[in-house]
Amino acid sequence: MPECRTCGGALTEVYDFGRQPLSDAFLEPDKLEGEFFYRLAVGMCGACTMVQLMEEVPRDKMFHEDYPYYSSGSEVMRKHFEHTARDFLDTELTGPDPFIVEIGSNDGVMLKAIADAGVKHLGVDPSGAVTERARSKGIRTRTAFFEESEALAVVAAEGNADVIFAANTICHIPYLDSIFRGVAALLKPNGIFVFEDPYLGDIVERASFDQIYDEHFYLFTARAVRNMARRFGLELVDVEHFGVHGGEVRYTIARQGAREPKPAVEELLAEEDARGLAQLSTLEEFGLRVTAIKDDLVTLLTKLRDEGKRVVAYGATAKSATVANLCGLGPDLVEFVCDITPQKQNRVTPGSHIPVRGPEAFRDPYPDYALLFAWNHADEILAKEQEFRRNGGKWILYVPDVHTV
Ligand code: TYD
């Protein structure tokens, strides 16, 4: 029986997405040889309820010098993190010698406002090029994987932290035991560990199965996070649910006894129980919806191709690797994907080998249909691409079901 990566309990597999590539490994078109694949499957622990991948991809295959994801690529996300930074500056970072550490600080989208305010900060991120970008903006950053030994090195060099923050990072890290030991060592006695990640409740509700890929090793709930924290002398003291990235929860964790848990924690736990988020049957039903979406999307794209319509995709997201490879999409069904990230352009998508072009290709001329791979940025993208629909174009969405708008 496979074991839970966090508590060692029995892990039951609930959905197999099959053979999948590294979701952020965009390839040069003439270098497709030797592409790495693994089996993407998701399961739930019967003991601590943690939902997780059945197979782990080695971390340095995913996060390295050329990791191509830049957090500052979305205007909405820039505002979200600016707001987060202001909040910390107003609440937690007001003492005599405040210090904030961010795990997975990427290009410094959150720490920028902290640095500008002259408050002591440190980003820790293993991906070379994105950390270089952060440093060029004046943000103190270590290029390293955060883990217990790195946390101890930070304590020795910089002292303890009031706040440890992480966005869309903790769910990427299989070895959470080392993370939580590191956090416990790095936090000041009344410090807080705040992290936000895609929420299983939203994934199940919207059938947003493409939130499941190599980098998203865990799909958190408040229950699973609380169980995890308690094993390290820590307690879940607050939760906040918000809409970015298709639905996320921000968890606030403190040392046990240091802070009174807010009522929001019990409320979310009760809601999770009522929705059966810790029950296998809920995930099995989710799996049936995934299969239906896959069938509907393939049927629609095949029909459009047979009718001679032009279909391109919008946003070369990591998420889209799961959709494209589960559905067997390729350049025959999707002409190209447009994306603003220079590091992804003129390459092809992992596994599915669909060419990636810059945003200008989208309107040169507009296609008949655009498959919105970056559906989590739908408001932002539909607002700036209104001309596409005025020209008769239609968006194809595939969560919570396949439909056009
Ligand atoms: P995102 O959904 O944020 O994350 P992930 O890769 O983890 O699934 O990725 C958004 C991608 O979409 C990123 O490559 C940038 C691109 N993008 C555009 O091309 N245009 C846009 O207007 C926005 C908001 C994003």
From TrEMBL:
GO biological process, one term: methylation
InterPro entries: Methyltransf_Zn-bd_dom_put, Methyltransf_Zn-bd_dom_put_sf, MeTrfase_14, SAM-dependent_MTases_sf
C-methyltransferase domain residues: 244-400
Residue ranges annotated for the Methyltransferase putative zinc binding domain, each copy included: 4-63
Pfam families (UniProt xref): Methyltransf_13, Methyltransf_14, Methyltransf_23
Entry keywords, A to Z: Methyltransferase, Transferase
Transmembrane segments: none
Highest taxon in the source lineage: Bacteria
Entry keyword annotation includes Methyltransferase: yes
CDD domains for the chain: AdoMet_MTases
Protein name per Swiss-Prot or TrEMBL: Methyltransferase domain-containing protein
Lineage start: Bacteria, Bacillati, Actinomycetota, Actinomycetes, Pseudonocardiales
